[in-house]
Amino acid sequence: MIPKNLFLKRSCPLIMQIAETHRKPRWLPVAKSKIYRIPKRPEVSEEERLELLRINNNYKTQMRAIRRFYHEEMINEKSSLQSASSEMSQQLEADEWEKCVQINEKWNAQVAAEREQRRKIELAAMEDYALKRIEAKDKEFKGRIARASAEIRREKELSSTFITPDNLEAAIDHALANPVDYNYAIDLRGNIVSGRDTPIVKPEKKDQAVA
Amino acid sequence: MPFMKGRAPIRRTLNYLNAGKLVFKDKIRIFSVGYNIHGQNNTGAKEFVFWYLPQIQYKNPDVQVATFKNLTPSPFIKCYFEDGRRILVDIDNKTKEDILEHLMNTVGKSKEVLEAEAIAAEKKDNPANFGIGCERPCICEVYGQVPCPGVVPLPKIFRGKYKNQTD
Q1: Strands (E), A56-110
Q2: Residues of A with CB below 8 A from B88's CB?
Q3: Are B60 and B24 in contact (CB under 8 A)?
Q4: Interface contact flag, B157 A19, Cβ < 8 Å
């Protein structure tokens, strides 16, 4: 065997080869030597012709029958296979669908149960929160009311000393009888030095300048 | 999208998209997710949409993937089949891994089917194959192979008529 690499590497230059036919080209006329030659028609006797016709017919009929038989068989087989496979696949698919639905329903039920539980807990938490808020609000209101009532009580107590039209005269008399002099000074020890009668000692101007 | 921009750009890498495990059955046409962005019970659904939806869409280019954001009281997944059937999955308070696992068990193709399909696809797409229905109808198209004798005549040294000549 000749190695293929020999041709691939072009180490051998004889590879150029032309496709050649071993006959006369179609466009050339009949050869001179054959120009008036008339081929003799084959002579077939009547018996032989009939015999050949019979054999041929037999052959064709039988072959057609065989061909048709196999063709029909193939078609039958194909259709039966197809129907069987499609039925099988449909059955398989239906089974699978059933299985999937079951799994999914199980999952959904579980999720629903979990959610219900969670909702319960959340609801309890919300109730707790609301109650706490209500309590806080109540407490605040109560505190406000207590503070307000204390204020009212204090004001009521004070109202006994108010000056009213009834005791206006008495109050005026009392005020006139006890004049209060606010014009006083307080030293660091808290002693009050009333100032209306005490003469003011003005410091010397010279001393101030020196100081 | 520019490279390495935005949140978790790894989601757009080919390796990540190819690593998706969920391949739907052939009959599924629409896959829809409803979820909210607030609430502890929506965390799993939200993360599922964020992390796994790109993979799902990449692995199932013929399936419509829809999301309903902030339109539902509780998160859910709904799949529509081509013959009108539908399957509803409640994904309330579930992690994204749990959801994916469940979907793979119900609406996804099983591992065996996927493997069989991969083998079939590989056989069909093997670049070494040639003939009818393949990428190349004849081996003679490959560089370095012997051309078809109908196109270029076979060298005489290859032919039995000349190779095995007795005289």
Answers
A1: none
A2: 104, 108
A3: yes
A4: no
B155–A111: do the CB atoms touch at under 8 Å?
no
Distances (CA, A) of A33 to A37, A39, B35: 8, 14, 98
**pTM for this prediction:** 0.56
Is residue B93 within 8 A of residue A114, CB to CB? The reply is: yes
A114 lies within 8 A of chain B by CB: yes
Q: Which amino acid does the sequence have at A13?
A: P
Length of chain B equals: 167
ipTM: 0.73
State whether residue A71 sits within 8 Å of chain B by CB. Answer: no
Residue B59 shares a structural domain with residue B82: yes
Q: How many CA atoms lie within 13 A of B86 on its CB side?
A: 11
On whether residue B3 sits in a domain, the answer given is: no
Tell me if B127 sits within 8 A of B138, measured CB to CB.
Answer: no
| Total number of domains in chain B | 2
Task: Mark whether B30 and B65 lie in a shared domain.
Answer: yes
Q: Any bridge partners for residue B81, and if so which?
A: B28
pLDDT, one tens digit per residue, over A123-181 is: 999 999 999 999 999 999 999 999 999 999 999 999 888 888 988 999 999 999 988 87
